[in-house]
Amino acid sequence: MKKLSLFLAASALSAPMAAHAQSDACGDVSITEMNWASAQVVTSVASFLMEQGYGCNVSVVQSDTVPAVTSVAENGEPDIVTELWLNSTGDAYEQLKEAGKVVEAASVLDPGGVEGWWVPTYLAEEHPEVTTIEGILENPDLVGARFYNCPEGWGCRVVSDNLARALDLEGNGIEVFNAGSGQVLASSMADAVMEEEPWFGYYWGPTVPLGKYDMTKVDLGEVKPEVHARNQNQEADNPGVSDFPAAPIVTAVTSTFQEENPAVFKLMQNMTFKTDNMSSILAWMDENNASADEAAVYYLQNYQDQWSEWLSDDARQNLASVLDQG
């Protein structure tokens, strides 16, 4: 780890020289860094691979979902927008695709953003019936007769409220506890897991808690897109039961960039992180008080079998020093 960290630090300092030496192959590249941890890790890994594997001169653009899409629409940049949550872009992203301004490279997280209702795995192993919502409704005491709901103002609060109504949680003896904040929700899970007590509630990934604690997703039945869409309406008078679909999270590039940098576009097409792996990386960051760049080092060190497959033969040769660290 120390050797690789030193290599990466030295490489970062030499990146402009490497980019200059191979400028014909890549040149200047701008990439977003969204203001949440998983996106920052993705950008750090991508930047390193582009600089050291493909000779790019990378500039990182601090951004967020809506500003990034707006900037591409109005200015044709940045070149690469990664960890773009499509459920937060409205119609703007699809309009850019239809207009030929952007090209979708890949799902940067697989299977995407994961949402659902969860129980601790130790509870699921002791009482398999709590792995389904039917089993929980029949045995509310096994989950502590309480459901930990999202805070007010979160999109998941509306969906979970409607699910709770459709399933009649309270009528089945399960108190709905509305968390006052994200910290309260996370702490309730942490406290329960550390004491090996029952816990049943909403959570999503990639996140620190789902990387730190072994949780089992409760089967709410099949995903019914029409029902889920209806459940997103706070005023729905006919909520139904549908599991949460995975939220698509993609990397997109401008059409100009795709045409001018086919090798790097191929890298972006290959660059997909497993959602559960990302949760584990975020948990490592939290436990070690680490930065996104340090997490990138951790990823490159521990998941070489994944990222080495993303590279072209030339890039793999350029990164041989990293691959040899093992």
Describe this structure in words.
The protein is of the alpha/beta class and 326 residues long. 49% of the residues lie in helices and 19% in strands. The protein has 17 helices and twelve strands. It has helices spanning 2-21, 37-54, 65-75, 92-98, 121-126, 133-138, 155-167, 182-194, 208-212, 225-231, 255-260, 262-270, 275-288, 292-302, 304-307, 313-318, 320-323, and strands at residues 27-34, 56-63, 80-85, 102-107, 109-110, 114-120, 146-149, 175-178, 201-205, 215-217, 249-254, 273-274. The chain has a three-stranded antiparallel β-sheet, sandwiched between helices.
Features:
single chain; three-stranded antiparallel sheet; 12 strands; 326 residues; alpha/beta
Topology:
Blueprint: H1 2-21, E1 27-34, H2 37-54, E2 56-63, H3 65-75, E3 80-85, H4 92-98, E4 102-107, E5 109-110, E6 114-120, H5 121-126, H6 133-138, E7 146-149, H7 155-167, E8 175-178, H8 182-194, E9 201-205, H9 208-212, E10 215-217, H10 225-231, E11 249-254, H11 255-260, H12 262-270, E12 273-274, H13 275-288, H14 292-302, H15 304-307, H16 313-318, H17 320-323
Parallel strand pairs: 1-2, 5-12, 7-8
Antiparallel strand pairs: 3-11, 4-11, 6-9, 6-10
Helix pairs in contact: 1-2, 2-14, 13-14
Brief digest:
The protein has 326 residues and is an alpha/beta fold. The chain contains 17 helices and 12 strands.
Query: What is the terminal-to-terminal distance?
Result: 9 Å
Assess the beta-strand content as a share of residues.
Answer: 15-25%
SS elements, strand count:
12
Taking Cα atoms only, what radius of gyration do you get, to the nearest Å?
22 Å
**Poorly predicted runs:** 12-23
Helix content: 40-55%
| Sheet having the most strands | 3 strands, antiparallel
Number of helices: 17
